[in-house]
Each structure stands twice: as C-alpha cells, then as structure tokens.
Design a protein that fits this description.
Bound molecules: guanosine-5'-monophosphate, magnesium ion
Helix content: 25-40%
CATH class of the largest domain: Alpha Beta
Radius of gyration: 26 Å
Distance between the termini: 68 Å
Number of domains: 2
CATH topology of the largest domain: Rossmann fold
Amino acid sequence: MLEIEPSRLTPVPNTANGGQPKFAHPSEREFARILDFYGLRWIYEPLSFPLEWDDSQRAAQMMTPDFYLPDLDLYLELTTMKQSLVTQKNRKLRKLRQLYPDINIKLLYRKDFHRLLAKFGFGPLAESDIPRISRVLYTERQIQQKVQELGRTISRDYARRRPVLIGVQRGMVCFMADIMRHVSLPVRMDFMSISNYSGEDGSDIEITKGLDLSIEGDDVILIEDIVDTGMTLNWLIGYLRSLRPASLEICALLDKRARRIADVDIRYTGFDAPDEFLVGYGLDHMETYRNLPFVGVLKPEEGSRK
Ligand code: 5GP
Ligand code: MG
C-alpha cells in the first residue's frame, strides 16, 4: 500500500532546460519538429514528478515527461528503446498515474508517431505524403474557429432570410460542409461544376453541371474555397447575376489578394493567403490532398500547375 503525504505530491519545475531545450535524443528533436509543423505548442521537460521518497522525505525517484502540449493538456513520454527499458518506463508511468490522477500522460512508441500524425494532422495520408508538404499554413483548429466566426456573421447578416448557398465543385467541399452547420438559418444549397479549358481563342469557362434549384429572387451566397486572380469568380458572378437572384454575395475561405487581376468584391473572407500553392481542406493538386484536415503549402516542385 502506498501511503503518501499530500504535500509531497507536487511536481517540481525542471530547471535543467532553461532557455533552449537540449534534446536528450534525436527522436525528440524530430518529434518537436513534427509538433511545430502541426502548429501544436510544446514545452520540453517542464516538470519532474516525484514518485518515491527516501527516509528524509526527499524525492528518491522522479519522472520527467519529455513533452507537455498545452493545447491538448497532455504530457508525452517518447520511447524508442529496448523492450526491457520500456517495461521499466511503464512501471514508472503506472506509478505516476496513481499518484497524480489528474495528469494526462501518454507513452509514445515509435509506431505511435504515425498514429499521432493521422490523428492530429494528415488524416488518411499520414504515412504516404508528408514529405511533399513543406508546412502547415492554417491548422485544423484555426480553420474551424474561422469557419465558425464566418457562419455566425452570415447568420446575423441574413437574419429572417433563407439564403441559398452555392458551391462550385470540388474545392469548396470541406468549407461548405463545415460552414453550413454554423449558419443558424433555414438555408438551401446547390452545386455547380465548371471547367477551364484553353482553346484557340484563349481560355474559356464552360458549365459542366448547372444548378438544380432556381435562384431567381433569392439571396445567394457563393461559397468559394480560394480566390486567386479572381477571373473564375468574376465569370461566376456574371453567370449567377444572369439568373436574377435578389442579392449575391461572396464568401471565400482563402483570398490570395496579391495575385488579383479581376477586381471582385468579396463580402466574407476567412484568411488573406500568401502567394503560394495551397492544398488540403478541399484544395487539390492533381486531385490529391483534398482530404488533409489543414491547409498546407505544397513544395514548389510539386505545385508548378499555376
Ligand atoms: P482564379 O480564377 O481566382 O485565379 O482561380 C481560382 C481557382 O484556382 C480556385 O477555385 C482553385 O481551383 C484554383 N486555385 C487558385 N489558387 C490555388 C491554390 O493555391 N491551390 C489550389 N489547390 N488551387 C488553387
Ligand atoms: Mg474553385
């Protein structure tokens, strides 16, 4: 039976890592890099947890978890070592959990690296496509927060109306699915598809799937993933106006303003995006990467489409 005085059960600040963290193992540095990549804040070995005490009540055994992630309120202990050492670590971990039941701590095995990636970032692409993305630009958390804000603003602006949300396939799929659930109005929704092609007399836009609903006399909000030169949007606005809605406004998650050619009026904008080729959260590169839960920058050699 453990008999512990409550006063002993206080983790102590680990002062060995003042300033720059000195990683004890290369895998820790690698892991910190992964956390940075995902925009998850971390602190290296911030606290030591006394686990055993000697006769003079001094801590005789302590455990110092490798990382603390404030966003997840989670301590992580990395282990890539021999099974015998892992067993020892597991024993310490059990003791820590018993003594500090409110502490959320996990032991991370090498194979868990990829699981963690899958859970907090790359989703189904966790194992295959990491190297092609140079960095995460907007994390899942940042996007969700922004989408919620936009949904609330639209709900306020369109109070007592029934706007029609229109999406142009396929880039807006994530944005549409998320924002519609933050618009607390009886919205309707429709989709269309267009194709850009270059013919003899320059490039042209063709409707490959038109709207199913009539929008004449309706308040229409065009839900766009990204506006770049603005040429596509400019064309779409002209087309939708010809269908005689009562009003037409644009809601775009990403706005690459620096590259604007056609002067289009965007009522609702999520992020002012840099002039880089972005993928994820619906945006593709040759139909891949749409299912990343964040928006990332594709490595330049991969993004030479535009
Ligand atoms: P715009 O006509 O404004 O130049 O281009 C808009 C369209 O180009 C978007 O709907 C999107 O399909 C594509 N696009 C522009 N920038 C990006 C980007 O950074 N990533 C991806 N995946 N598509 C983009
Ligand atoms: Mg598009």
